[in-house]
Amino acid sequence: MGKVVMYSSVSVDGFIANENDQPGPLFDWLTSGDVPLDDSGYLKVSQTSYDYTRPYWDQIGVTIAGRHVFDLTDGWDGKPPSGIDHVVVVTHRPAPEGWNPEAPFHFVDGIEAAVAKAQELAGDRVVEVAAGDVGGQVLAAGLIDEVRMDVVPVVLGTGKRYFGSTQAQHLLEDPDVVIQGNRVLHLLYRLHR
């Protein structure tokens, strides 16, 4: 089985979006350089960020996201973002009416079922869990192996927390990776077991 990794860009005060689900400047680092990060021609980062981010993105087989994110993005028009093979959507509701059943999206009820389905689909590749409420629930269930953060130098003040509404303490190891890019600090922590 591949690793289960919680991931997102985050403000220095721990938010992944404001209260209206807008990320504001949290993704500015993705256009702050001159090295193309993907084939879109839009995402360009520093060489340092590319050397850290591209190999990680290439390892991701499945992303787990909540229904709220799925709805906000209109299901990415049925195409998983960033070249990922599958998306597992944690939801108590069925797929939207008219949803293409051939799209590589899997609607699953519950955190444990979502991680099991994602690991089945990913094989030995990484299962990425979107930070926020779903990520916090997966962390609370003890199913996260690593936490990756792209820390952006902005204070949002309020909004959607990186770890969602998790109330319990979770001890992380010292960071394995600390890399400074343009307008971002890349951090990788393993969970203390």
Automatic annotation (TrEMBL):
Any GO MF annotation of the entry: 5-amino-6-(5-phosphoribosylamino)uracil reductase activity
Matching Pfam families: RibD_C
UniProt record, GO biological process: riboflavin biosynthetic process
Bacterial bifunctional deaminase-reductase C-terminal domain: residues covered: 88-173
InterPro entries according to UniProt: DHFR-like_dom_sf, RibDG_C
Name this polypeptide is given: Dihydrofolate reductase family protein
Native source organism of the sequence: Umezawaea endophytica
